[in-house]
Amino acid sequence: MNHNYYAQYDNVRIRPLKCEDIEALRIWRNKKDEARFLRDIGHISSEMQRKWFDEYQLDDTQIVFAIDEVNELNRIVGSMALYDIRDTQAEIGKIQIGDKEAHGRGIGRKSLVMGMKIGFECLNLNRIVGSVHRDNISARTNDLRIGFRIIGQHKSDRDGIEDELEIIRKDVLENNAYYDEIKIGEGGILI
């Protein structure tokens, strides 16, 4: 799998995850309040994180993106992933904006739309699915705002209910005026 996709719009860039990024992700993931809606995997050591990163680089079923705020903060502020990539479908999520200074800037929403554009335009996906915990109001609001529709529900492994979501390319185009303004590319070259 090509792990070299980039996208940029406004103050947000998603880019390939680098080894030097994984310690920040590990620290954020270990904070219970930051990861309360993510799957509980317990405490992550530096060794565990490095092993995960090495295995990830060989994985053809997922692309993990670092999320950078590029106007004011000029640093990595979170991560997200396209995963379970099969044929013309993938799941999007595992999103975390761990840098508290980045909260409230629309970074999560923009990152999701950029990830979807890479999925639809570069990976030729027809459908992207996801899930969101009912209590995660900001994420749920963002997901519905960008065009996801609820197709079901399941019990969350974090207690409560998660909505199962889907989106097709047409839905992204109809719900995101800036979709065509997102620049995408490979290997650091935006087109």
Describe this structure in words.
With 191 residues, the chain is α+β, with helices and mostly antiparallel strands. It has five helices and ten strands; from the N terminus they run E-E-H-H-E-E-E-H-E-H-E-E-H-E-E. It has helices at residues 22-30, 46-56, 107-122, 137-145, 169-175; strands at 5-9, 12-16, 62-69, 75-86, 89-97, 127-133, 149-155, 161-168, 183-186, 189-190. It has a ten-stranded mixed beta sheet with strand order 7-8-6-5-4-3-2-1-9-10, with helices on both faces. The longest helix is centred in the middle third of the chain and has 16 residues, at 107-122. It is globular, with a radius of gyration of 16 Å. It starts with a strand and ends with a strand.
Map the helices and strands.
Elements: E1 5-9, E2 12-16, H1 22-30, H2 46-56, E3 62-69, E4 75-86, E5 89-97, H3 107-122, E6 127-133, H4 137-145, E7 149-155, E8 161-168, H5 169-175, E9 183-186, E10 189-190
Parallel strand pairs: 5-6
Antiparallel strand pairs: 1-2, 1-9, 2-3, 3-4, 4-5, 6-8, 7-8, 9-10
